[in-house]
Amino acid sequence: MKDFSDLSEWSPKRLRTLRNNLNNRIETFKNNPNNPKALQPSHALYGMEEGECQELLKKVRELLLKLK
């Protein structure tokens, strides 16, 4: 899992990409809750559970709203 403690320093484009990845990952958890697709160890969201993804998505959305 990547370190997301410095999200405020990320560019808007990178934040939007992370938001899209999080939305896709959360959708995967919803569509197949018993066996979500495994991610590669190099993927930024590797090792994160659905709740962690939702919390991070909330933070990313807040940052993107501040940047507008």
Question: Any overview of this molecule?
Answer:
By secondary structure, the protein is an all-alpha fold. The chain has one domain (7-67). 56% of the residues lie in helices and 0% in strands. The longest helix is centred in the first third of the chain and has 20 residues, at 12-31.
Helices and strands in order, then pairings?
Blueprint: H1 12-31, H2 50-67
Helix pairs in contact: 1-2
Shape: globular
**pLDDT < 50 stretches:** none
Percent range for helical residues? 55-70%
What's the SSE pattern?
HH
**Structural class by secondary-structure content:** mainly alpha
What is the CA-CA span between the terminal residues? Answer: 28 Å
Summed up, the domain count is: 1
Summed over residues and divided by their number, the pLDDT gives a mean of: 94
Number of strands: 0
Strand content: under 5%
What about the largest sheet? Answer: none
DSSP helix count? 2
From the alpha-carbon coordinates, what is the Rg to the nearest angstrom? 12 Å
Question: Which key features would you list for this structure?
Answer:
single chain, 68 residues, mainly alpha, 56% helix
TL;DR?
The protein is mostly helical. Helix content is 56%, strand content 0%.
